[in-house]
Amino acid sequence: MVLTAAGIPSAIRADGALFILEVDDTELDLALGELGHYEAEVRPTPVAPPPPPRRQPHAWIGCLVYAAVLLGVAYAIGNGLVRLDAFDLGELDAGRLQSGQWWRAWTALTLHLDPGHLAANLGAGIWFGYLAAGELGSGSSWFLIVNGAALANWVEGELGPATHRSVGASTAVFTALGMLAAHAWRTRFYLPQRRALRWAPLVAGIVLLGWLGSAGEQTDLIAHALGFVVGVLIGALAALPAIERALRRVPQWLAGLGALASIALAWSCALLN
After folding, report:
1. Which tens digits make up the pLDDT trace of 196-224?
2. Which pTM does this prediction carry?
3. DSSP structure class, residue 52
4. Across the chain, which distance is largest between two alpha carbons, in Å?
5. What's the CA gap between 151 and 266, in Å, rounded?
6. Can you tell me the distance from the alpha carbon of 234 to that of 182, in angstroms, rounded to the nearest whole number?
């Protein structure tokens, strides 16, 4: 067909299991040239692998501060360095949150029932927080994680039954996971890659949510799911070029200080209540 379109006489004959394309000797070079051009046109262009994601420096700093806050609050309450009813003042009590005690959405993130509960949230929070900080920066990521998790707690407290109570940083853990998955998904969505790879970060995040977020008899499944959903929304928004540029303009130390300030303000309101 190629040679016919180029006006070069040719014939095909069978030779056992082979097919032989024949042209006149005077047309040989021209025929080979036309066939070579055709092969070059239909040959698929090799797709270069997408570049590795750019990692932000000092991702470990926010993780150290996260661990220091959780351990510091546990030590202060466990050793009577603050009011004896501090745990009662800081837990996510839906009834009292609905009556105006908004700070419980933040303070509940820093409280844990026992060393095992604390250790699990320390390990998972440090790991997901470190990965998220590598994507968005240490200060920005922890500001979004802390306040995104508090938003998830607030939604659960406002919409849930008044008798609902919960504590723990697991909401923040799954906010970090959702934010990490959605940000990686959106920033690499338009790169030339197979569909499975394009959706892999979000699918992996959902799998980890189901695997880690449903273990244990007293697991607050709604809090974990809400934290993940809020994290996904934050991560997808943070990947938008305009918002990404705005986040880069904020110094990481200032964003990290904002995360600490939100916790400090919430505990101040709780202890002065």
Report:
1. 777 888 899 999 998 888 776 677 889 99
2. 0.80
3. P
4. 102
5. 13
6. 8
What span, in angstroms and rounded, lies between the C-alpha atoms of 203 and 19?
48
Please report where in the chains the tokens 């189901």 appear, as a residue: 210
Instruction: Provide the 10 A C-beta neighbour count for residue 125.
Output: 26
- Residue type at position 122: L
Rg (CA), the chain: 29
18-58 pLDDT, tens digit each: 899 999 988 888 989 888 888 888 877 666 666 666 788 89
Query: Who wins on pLDDT, 37 or 257?
Result: 257
Going by C-alpha positions, the residue among 238, 225, 65, 259 that lies closest to residue 146 is 259
Q: Name the token pair of 108.
A: 């509940």
% pLDDT > 90, the chain: 66
SS3 content of the chain, % helix, strand, coil (to 5): 70, 5, 25
Asked if residue 254 has pLDDT above 80, the reply is yes
Are the CB atoms for 227 and 178 separated by under 8 Å? yes
Question: 226 by DSSP, 3-state: which?
Answer: helix
> Taking CA 224 as the corner, what is the angle to CA 173 and CA 179, rounded to the nearest 5 degrees?
50
How far from chain centre, in Å, is Cα 159? 25
The helix or strand, by DSSP H or E, that contains position 12, with its residue range, turns out to be strand 10-15
CB neighbourhood size of 198 (10 A): 17
Q: Is the dihedral of CA 186, 187, 190, 196 positive or negative?
A: negative
> What count of Cα atoms within 13 Å lies in the side-chain half-sphere of residue 199?
5
- Residue 110 is given by DSSP the state G
